[in-house]
Write a structure and sequence with these properties.
Layout lengths: L2 H7 L4 H27 L3 H4 L2 H24 L4 H13 L5 H20 L12 H22 L10 H5 L17 E2 L4 E2 L5 E3 L4 E3 L4 E3 L4 E3 L4 H29 L8 H11 L1 H29 L4 H16 L2 E5 L25 E5 L28 H9 L8 H8 L1
Antiparallel strand pairs: 1-2, 3-4, 5-6, 7-8
Helix pairs in contact: 2-4, 2-10, 6-11, 7-9, 9-11, 10-11
The structure holds zinc ion (ZN) (2 copies).
The site of one zinc ion (ZN) has 5 residues, from loops.
Length: 411
Amino acid sequence: MSPRTIQRNSRPNTTTMAQLAAWFLGTSVTVSILVFIVLFGQLPAFGAGPLGAANRFILHDIPSCLSSLDRRICGGKLCPIVMSIGDGLMNKKHPLVLILYLVLMTGGSYLFLRNGYTEIPNEALGSKHIYLIPLTILLPYVALYLAASSDPGFISSHNHHTAMSLYPYDQIIFRAVPNPEECRTCRWAKPARSKHCGLCARCVAKMDHHCAWINNCVGTRNTRHFLGFLAANAITLTYGTYLTYHVLYLKMSGSDEDQLWVRWINTMAEYRELGAVFILCLMCSLIMIGFLVAHMYLIWAGTTTNDSLKWGDIKYALKKGTIVVFDDEGRGSPTADYDATRWPWGGMKGRRRGVIAVDADGNVPEEIRDCITNLRDLENIYDRGFLRNMTEVLWPPKLMANMLNDHTALC
Ligand SMILES: [Zn+2]
Ligand SMILES: [Zn+2]
């Protein structure tokens, strides 16, 4: 028996490994698709398509089906328990997800340093990687600190007036007819593009979303740090994929008669810790790049995650015919009471249009002159072109009218 045969026989069965790899790959792809549908299925771009339908099926149809099953089988006792656990995890601010991120990132880095870093330099990876690797591992931690500790643009009584002047109401996704909507918790008029975060219990200017990974809101003041966090993770994880791939590739052995992917799977099975780091880096880098691209798309489109959900509602309503549109030329600005000196930076594009819903009886207001059914006929006044949108993200308008007072108010 040759040494080569002995080595191959000591490895896990090739067919079993191939099945395991296929199962893992299938599961990973399915989970990634489900996460994407849940997070982005409500965006206007997907709302009317199969992704939007899948989103509604997962978030509305399945829970209501389970609820009716619970009522029939358990007398409705199970749902409240599940809901309260889910409520604690989903609707209360806690650092569990942030801790999970730190465990995964630190654990992955440790496994790589123990199994991969010691193999460098080698014939594929030069000595420069010895210095690059520690810096790249540190990058996400610095980005996380900035994103998690930064003020997203919390609105206080001291800066509410400033927040009101940041953006005008477009009368489409942020309406102020006859008056701006009031935040029922903070008891003040909601500034355009703001949203009250139930987890942080604060209104946030130009709210994007509350991110569990950074345990903080993403708003006008820290979208740049959030983008930095996504970019840092995308860079580190892609670099980690590249490094582990090369280290594993050099360790690859086996018979030349075997297909390359079979030898690759066997190598990952033999060097399991490094194989796990490779798979973790590969999957998470794809997800992070996906998030980064999605957020760059939002900036390009002049929206936020919160804005785009509202655009999705408008699109749906237009399709159903429950919203009609009319020219609002000559209408008094609802923001006239506020010093809207910050907008528009460079002038409006074209003529604005307003949106108003039909009343409960389905009656259409008399002044309507134009009726449209397509979202493209509506102007997004917050979209000022990619470069200006990006500039606004990187150098956000100051929100704090009085830093000292506001800081005191926040404390
Ligand atoms: Zn509020
Ligand atoms: Zn929040």
